[in-house]
Amino acid sequence: MNTLCLTYPLFILASQCQNIFTTIKIKISDQEKKLRLEDYRYALENDYCFGPPVDIDDIMNKDIFDEFVHFKCLKCGFEYDEEYDILLEMWDESISDYPVIYCDHCGKESSVPLDAYYKQTLMVFK
């Protein structure tokens, strides 16, 4: 199921991911929940995905968050946000303490979470 862009963030929480880098949590609105439920229902009806039926009241009464990580490129300094769910799919925690991904601006594999960026740049100046 594709996720939709956030239209009404109600508030933002920041949390440490195992004290390595910060994630940003944005609470999704009731309108966004309804849109996602419609997408999910459509995907089920058209065999785009398989999954259990969901209790609409249960979903509407829960606080649901989108989670992001703010990245900065070590080469060009470009900054952007990446969905945490996507990072978890491609990041091997046994290889590195934080994800290193390709920069959307310069194309180099040098974008790191902002916390890691500052640690890396501080090490250079010590």
Question: Care to describe what's here?
Answer:
The protein has 126 residues and is an alpha+beta fold. Helices cover 33% and strands 27% of the residues. It has four helices and six strands. A hairpin with a 5-residue loop joins strand 3 and strand 4. The longest helix is centred in the first third of the chain and has 16 residues, at 30-45. The relative contact order is 0.16.
Sheet/helix structural class: alpha+beta
Whole-number average pLDDT? Answer: 81
Helical residue percent? 25-40%
Uncertain regions spanning at least 5 consecutive residues? 1-14
Order of helices and strands: EEHHEEHEEH
Strand content: 25-35%
> How many beta-strand segments?
6
Give the overall silhouette.
Answer: elongated
Oligomer state of the chains in this structure? single chain
How far apart are the termini? 46 Å
Major beta-sheet overview: 6 strands, antiparallel
- How large, in whole angstroms, is the Cα Rg? 17 Å
Number of helices: 4
In brief:
Helices cover 33% and strands 27% of the residues.
List the helices and strands and how they pair.
Blueprint: E1 12-17, E2 21-27, H1 30-45, H2 56-61, E3 65-73, E4 79-83, H3 84-90, E5 101-102, E6 109-113, H4 114-125
Antiparallel strand pairs: 1-2, 2-3, 3-4, 3-6, 5-6
Spell out the key features of this protein.
126 residues; alpha+beta; 6-stranded antiparallel sheet; 33% helix; elongated
